[in-house]
Automatic annotation (TrEMBL):
Coiled coil ranges: none
Protein name: Oxidoreductase
Positions of the GFO/IDH/MocA-like oxidoreductase domain: 149-285
Record domain Gfo/Idh/MocA-like oxidoreductase N-terminal: where: 50-134
Matching Pfam families: GFO_IDH_MocA (PF01408), GFO_IDH_MocA_C3 (PF22725)
Keywords: Oxidoreductase
Domain of life: Bacteria
GO MF term list: nucleotide binding; oxidoreductase activity
PANTHER family listed in its UniProt record: CONSERVED EXPRESSED OXIDOREDUCTASE (EUROFUNG), CONSERVED EXPRESSED OXIDOREDUCTASE (EUROFUNG)-RELATED
Family, similarity comment: Belongs to the Gfo/Idh/MocA family.
Amino acid sequence: MTRRTVRIAMNGVTGRMGYRQHLVRSILALREQGGLNLGNGETLWPEPVLVGRREHALRALAERHGLTEWSTDLDAVLADDTVDIYFDAQVTSARVDALTKAIAAGKHIYTEKPTAADLAGALELARLAEEKGIKHGVVQDKLFLPGLLKLKRLIDGGFFGEILSVRGEFGYWVFEGDWQDAQRPSWNYRAEDGGGIVVDMFPHWEYVLHELFGRVTSVTAHVATHVPRRWDEQGKPYAATADDAAYGIFQLEGGAIAQINSSWTVRVNRDELVEFQVDGVHGSAVAGLRGCRVQHRSATPKPVWNPDIPVTESFRDQWQEVPDNTEFDNGFKAQWELFLRHVTLGEPYHWDLLAGARGVQLAELGLRSAAEGRRLDVPEVSL
Ligand SMILES: NC(=O)c1ccc[n+]([C@@H]2O[C@H](COP(=O)([O-])OP(=O)(O)OC[C@H]3O[C@@H](n4cnc5c(N)ncnc54)[C@H](O)[C@@H]3O)[C@@H](O)[C@H]2O)c1
């Protein structure tokens, strides 16, 4: 085995996503397993160069993990010809500027979603990347979760017959921050700082629906700011100016209807923090992050509506668990591996900046639908 090094500038690694999922669970996990076996006699060794604004935080993080390279000077890192890839997990509002610079510097790009604040900005990034001829990828981690991989397996195996509808329920209670700390950053609740649940979650719903069931062709959304006052990381009260709940209906190519509730203001009475129920003519499934349960038409009970008599059967017990049948890796790491193979071996990869732009488009149209109180068509985007 020969070792080939790929140097990755990682910006925003002191944040929630950048640290846990991308640095620790993906890049450092790859190093712990001895690198990525490329299958051609070569092992790819990812070498992170940590980038951020706060020197002490970066130094502490690097020391904790035995890393030696970190910098607060993004321009200098981008000017370094030995750096191959620029990765971005910064706050959303800082993303376009950094990605634009990195593309201009000729780096390959891997980035968190949403890629930009609006569709025009997202498409511009995709255009710049294509013109420069660099490789680019956008995080679409939900596709690589065990629950959704099992759902995909059911679809590919023809389990559902015609798929009629998808109902998604996402959410949990995010503490206001006064008597218990909030478990999400405060910028998520300020529209002026790139916050809001539509901007955060609609990009995920776009690729989940698109890849599993069909492209979204129209959106109807209603949004709310149910909790208008929250407390920030310093314990100071602030006005929550962004939506904290969104109720969306999506028409899909092929005819299925999806309805997804997204909320940071609900308490969980589900098995998982997100669940999708898919109803088809031949069977139904409920998929979460990890699990997936099914009910075939042959095992479907025949309830009769009669509120005068108590329920005599446990409907939830009538579903069957789909077995793993394989080992599932962390979803973020699985997508990193595919991106690194794309960069080094030129293997196909379609979760790119154009795919990221479709997510931004759905968020933009979702917010506009809510503001105008009407259903909006979702035109196909291209460069
Ligand atoms: N794929 C997913 O499931 C998923 C989940 C959550 C968040 N995200 C995305 O990841 C990105 C980061 O989200 P997070 O929850 O980790 O946020 P976070 O607030 O925890 O981290 C933000 C990071 O950006 C840095 N930063 C750079 N410029 C900043 C500025 N001007 N103000 C404040 N911080 C700045 C911070 O230092 C920190 O490292 C967002 O774009 C978000 O949409 C993706």
